[in-house]
Amino acid sequence: MVVAWSPVSARRYYFTLLTLIAALILIFYQYALNSGPDYSLYYSLLKNVVNEENCQLPVIDPFDETIKKYIIPVSPLVCKKLQPELTKLVDGQLLIDLKELADSGYSVDSVKCEYRCFFRSELDDVTLRYDPWVFFSNGTFVESCEFIEVSCSKSFPPIKIYSNLHSQIVVKKDVVEKTNKKPGILLFVVDSVSQNNWKRNLLKTLGVLENEYSATVFKGFTKVGDNSFPNAVAFLAGIRVMTVGYEDELKSEDGFFDNWPLIWKDFKNENYTTFYAEDYPEFNLFKYLANGFKKQPTDHYFRPFWLQLYGSFLHRRSTHLCYGNNPCHKLQISYLEEFIKKYHEKNAPIFALNWLTELGHDWLNQVGIGDEDFAEFFRRMKPYLENNFVFVFADHGHRFDPIRQSVIGRIEERMPFFSFSVPKFLENIPGLKSTIKRNSRQLTSFWDLHATLKDIIALSRNNAWKELAGKEHVDDALDEGYGDRGSSLLRPPSEEKKANDVGDAESDDKSTSPLHPAPKTKEWNNVEDDDAIDESRKLSLIHPPLEEDNFEDTGNVADKESSRFRKKNAENLGGSTRGLSLLRPLPKKRNCEIAGIPEDFCICQRENQINVNDSRVKKSAKVVIEKINKLLEKEIKNKKCRSLELEKIKHSQTFLPNLKIAADSSGFYVMYRVTVKAFPSGAFFEGTVRHSVNSDGYTVIGDINRINKYGNQSSCVQSALLRKYCFCI
């Protein structure tokens, strides 16, 4: 007997079948929900991310609504006039300003002035030596002294009415004039300024750099260490130090750094005249909780001037950021300016590291005080710097200002400002400008800067600048095996390394996350179904989509270029592939792992806010505090530091690494970033915790960052690491 298959029966059959399937899906989903649904969604997102092995840079509005409360304009710096400005040093002559003297009610005969030269001792980085005081008259020559202290007193009664310090550049006798177009190097560093904070507070300087120097700002530039020292050593020596999770690649057993392979030694060997100036002497790169240098590290070294200034009575009386009537930062800039001019006259190549710390270090917006002065300096120096590489950058963003406790502040802190311009004689090299522009949109770091400096030395030595000429579009110049840290910012990048152009874009949807559009719910376990999140939601949850560039297919030519550039890079770096010169092609694939950027500083991660009451977040926060107490175990036992407790969880995120590194031999894992407040210190800490799904274990990854000021809370310990954590008893 044959039973007819009616449309009604068919509908009933399919309805029953679909109902059964739906029930099975619901049962399966409820099971998944109870066993950690956030991980299934997490894994799904990982699988559907485009360009998963490349970095997609976060787009951050410098004036986002969530951080406006931290952006407070500062008033211009006005130094309180404490004394008449009686003397100045011009072309080796000490001059007395007779008009200033008369305006102050003194005659030439009623005042006696004397000077003394002071120098760095030959023993250490702290001791100074002094010549005897010598009385002088207007126009006295003091050509042999780099640093001079002046004092003027009334003849009767003998009361001091004026004191000051002067500096000048005394050209070295062994200077070698430039004969083969060796370009100079200027590294102009302003401490603690993120890319966005530079746009907010140093806009005039940015305009001069971009418009008059044709400088390019690198939007994917990332720090590789927590504070100034590891980032500085990365570009000065190409080695990793003071980075939690990594063994120091070089140590100073006695606290001195004379034997370290700092880049200025390489330039000195190439007959460059070297210069190093850094203010804030007690917190200098090589002196903070260390001993600095036994011998003077560079030809011109400004530290003796700052030691004398910071120890003076006049400085203690002065307005903050001033020495007497003058802003402190202008004193160092003047010294740098004279250095550049004097050796320009000699047609001699220079290497200059100018580091300004105090202006930007303590307060987010304070750095804006220097904007006009920086801009004017670069305007004045343009004719003298035409044949120099000019690198203007910061070491990291702000680490302690209240903005650091915000989501945007955390990203900004990892992305220091970085720009550079090339010498005028290189501007006409085919393809160079477009190469720099393309590379400015890539993930880069201080490893790349170090490799660039090494490469400049090699190119200068051989006058081999024509090597930089190349095709406008080379996409396969390097394979993924080329080096582990650093890439050329002047060579064409490969397609897979492209990241979205940060630009000055603002978020169209102000109600969403300041970094990228957020999902409607803040907890993974509120999502009802993977299907409810379409592809655009998945991408918007993570980062804005990339704007693809069109690259020319170079075929076998690219393979030849790859081999040639790899060989050349190894030669220039002494056989090392630590970093890739900024003058060489970028690798095809580049994320933080490949670029040597620690995971806790990586800006490429796809992340989402997660509820602070989530049990996994609470466990992560607990593990962070336990880790800190473990680090302080000896100090707690010796009753130096208090044991810390968790007071509250401020906020938390879960973030997505690339799929290839989201699982290891022990199984799939999830990363949490938690910001916690500790009791009794009131310290805010930020830690990254890895949760292994298989074992349900929680492990702190990398460094735990202190993100608010700690002042003298930890003065009872000498370790730079433990000072971030200790609350002295």
Chain-wise SSE layout:
Layout: H1 7-34, H2 37-48, E1 87-90, E2 93-96, H3 98-103, E3 111-120, E4 128-130, E5 134-136, E6 140-141, E7 147-154, E8 160-167, E9 184-190, H4 195-201, H5 203-212, E10 216-217, E11 221-222, H6 228-237, H7 263-269, E12 273-278, E13 300-301, H8 303-310, H9 313-317, E14 322-323, E15 326-327, H10 328-345, E16 350-356, H11 358-361, H12 371-381, E17 388-393, H13 407-414, E18 418-421, H14 432-439, E19 444-445, H15 446-462, H16 535-542, H17 556-572, H18 592-595, E20 606-609, H19 615-631, H20 633-637, E21 645-656, E22 663-664, E23 667-679, E24 684-692, E25 697-706
Parallel strand pairs: 9-16, 9-17, 11-19, 12-13, 12-16
Antiparallel strand pairs: 1-2, 2-6, 3-4, 3-5, 3-7, 7-8, 10-18, 14-15, 17-18, 20-21, 21-23, 22-23, 23-24, 24-25
Helix pairs in contact: 5-12, 6-15, 10-12
Could you characterize what this model shows?
With 729 residues, the protein is α+β, with helices and mostly antiparallel strands. The chain folds into four domains: 29 residues; 81 residues; 418 residues, Alkaline Phosphatase, subunit A; 120 residues, Nuclear Transport Factor 2, Chain: A. The protein is 29% helix and 18% strand. It is built from 20 helices and 25 strands. The strands form six sheets. It has a seven-stranded mixed β-sheet, with helices on both faces. Helix 5 runs parallel beside helix 12, helix 6 runs parallel beside helix 15 and helix 10 runs parallel beside helix 12. The longest helix is centred in the N-terminal third of the chain and has 28 residues. About 17% of the residues have low confidence.
